[in-house]
Amino acid sequence: MNILxxxxxxxxxxxxxxxxxxxxxTYQDLENYLKSLEPIYNVILDIKQSNLEGILxxxxxxxxxxxxxxxxxxxxxxxxxxxxxxxxxxxxIPVVEVHLSDTNNREEFRKKSVIKEACSxxxxxxxxxxxxxxxxxxxxxxxxx
Length: 145
Ligand code: DQA
Prior knowledge:
Elements: E1 2-7, H1 19-22, H2 27-41, E2 44-49, H3 53-66, E3 69-73, H4 82-89, E4 95-99, E5 121-124, H5 129-143
Parallel strand pairs: 1-2, 1-3, 3-4, 4-5
Helix pairs in contact: 3-4
The chain binds 1,3,4-trihydroxy-5-OXO-cyclohexanecarboxylic acid.
């Protein structure tokens, strides 16, 4: 199974950024952790990060013909990007929304995800494990098809 892991704005700054919320592990640590899961779950992961909405949209479009599923941490775009919502709706493969932090227990504006409805499921607040649960979900989903 080929999975695209797509990280949005400011996720390249974890480790430095608000460590009380996101921890002290860096983006490189996240990539290393995800890569270590490949043999465990027998998946191939392509891990990308962009701070630009249009690039995330282009990658979502591209993913439709090249991957079996997407794990998307859209960062703050989660809360207001209808363009990302439309991009997810435009593709047929499952997209899992993930977040490192528990967005339901932070600022009010983070409680709303405008992409949630377009995604197959949302996994929130488990740190790096949110991505691992996303992989497990996609494997299960694939097995059900
Ligand atoms: C985040 C939560 C978002 O609200 C925030 O804007 C981020 C990171 C998370 O993974 O917890 O950039 O997506």
